[in-house]
Each structure stands twice: as C-alpha cells, then as structure tokens.
User: Fold this.
Amino acid sequence: MASVTPTLGIHHVTCVAGDPQRNMDFWVETLGLRLVKRSINQDDPGTYHFFFADAEGTPGTSMTFFPWENLSQGKVGSGQVSRTAFRVPEGSLDYWEDRFDEFGVDYDERVDRFGETVLPFRDPDGLPVELVEVDIPEDDPTVPWTEFVPADHAIRGFHSVTLWLANPDSTMDLLRTMGLEEVGTEESPGDTPGDERTRFAAAGEVGKYVDVLPTVQAGRQGHGTVHHVAFQTPTDDDQSAMRSAVQGEGLRPTQQIDRHWFRSVYFREHNGVLFELATSDPGYDSDEPLDDLGGRLVLPGEFEARRDEIEAQLTDVTVPRAEAAETAESEADD
Assistant:
C-alpha cells in the first residue's frame, strides 16, 4: 500500500437546512461569510447547494448547505458530527456576543476547552455551531471577507468538528490512519452527553482538530444537522493513497466522484459518520472570476443543459449585500 500523506484537516462541512433565504441571510449577513458558490445538489438537482467561506473559498473554510425545505427537524445524536467550530481572532467574542444580541441569535455562555475560549450558538435551523478564539498568525492561509464583519473579528475558517460516537475506539484508530495525532483528553461536563473529550490534530493550520465524544444518544438527520464532513487530500495521489488506507480499515469508500470544484471519495466510518476525502483543485474560482464568486447559479457539467427545468424548481433567493442592508436601515430610521 502506498504511503499516506496525512490529511491537512477539514476541507468543508455540509449541513441540512430548511428555508434557503433564511439560511443565506444568516450565514452571509449575520456571520459574515462569503457566498462563494450558488449551485445545486448534484445528487438532487431540484435542491440548492450553498457554499459559504472566506473571501477566496480557501480549503478549510467552506460551510455548505442543502436546504431541503420539506424535510423535518433533525436531532443531533450518535453517529453524527455534533458540533462545528470556527476560528475567530483572540479578543473578538465580545463583538460576537453583541452581534448575536443585535440579530437575535440563540447562544450559550462561553466555555473553556483545551485552554481556549468557546462560544456555542445555533443557526436558525438549530444547527449547533461554535466560535473559538485563537491567535491568527500573519501568514495564515485564510482571507477574511469584510463586507459585513470587520477583519479583526471575522471568521477565519474551521477550528474543529466534534463527533458523537457509540464506540469511539474504532473511529479513533481510523483518525490515526488518516494522519491525525491524539493531542489530549479532558473532562467535558455539562455541554455534551459524554464526560470525556479526546482531541486529535491534523497536519494543517485550518480545521485541524477533530474531537471525539462517546454517546449512545439517538439522532436523526434533518434540518439543523450535519450531512457529512470532508477532509483535505490535496492531490489525486494523496486521495488515492488515503482511499486505500481507508479500505485497509475494513471500510468501503466510493470511487472518485467529480464534484466540479473538487474531486471526492465518500465512506461511512465505523460509527456511521459520513466522511469525504476532497482534493484542493480546481477550486471555487475555476468557473467564476474571484470577484464574482456566488454571483450566479452555477450548474456544473451536464446540468447546464437543464437550466430552465432546474431553475423552475428552485425558490428565488437574494444574496445579502452590505449596501442594501445599510439603505434599509437608513430608511427605517427616517
């Protein structure tokens, strides 16, 4: 078996939402992430696929959503990504609490975890999300998008995901095979159903952590849950070697699937969480200029020939713009 290049960390996280406009408004205007791609679910082309990321769609920054409007509310439980955490600069959580108060966001008290301060909150669909204060180095690969949130407070890509698992040992062995290293364990009372959190670290700078918590709490997929988590395997060779290593763990990864902005391999790990391996190229700017990312509905490959049919099935959405928001606020004050 070819040697495995350790994953750099999380590539993207894909979640299930309800109303597409509400989803768009929250993740763009409230959280200040850029819509870098407005497309469709390539396995269900009557459904949008939104990609929210930093200013350039850097790997390790994109939170993506399938807004399945007719699906029921989900419940986070065993065999799922239970929390998705983002990095924010040190000292910015006061700003975010004030912003959440202004926008009516449901959030909890801060907690300390592995020496870092964490602010838990939920999106409008009830999806559990966290902000974690970290020191952002000057050479950080992420590029803050500043249309709604200033750079010194802006979200700077993923910090971590937390996995809720019935039998963590087999998944922890898989994470080691993927090149993550166990870096610590601590008690985790109150905020999770498990009493011990184990942290693994990947080789990269963004989205490097995976936390594992034991739980047998039942869950179901629906609005407010994570569909899958993708890990960075930058090149085709990296991905192929990782796929072979995953097979060696007794799992059944798919063949490579072309997702237009990256190439993907999918598999369910031992406890049922859907994992993806994703390449770095060709990237979100491969079919749109960087300045115009998210500006139009992009229909990859053969779907372009079905544009009229597909657009007729999709709910109209408007991408929030800072100028429009300022105009509306000014008119409301008059």
Notes: The chain has six helices and 16 strands. The chain has one domain: 10-333. Helices lie at 20-30, 93-103, 168-177, 236-248, 307-313, 322-333.
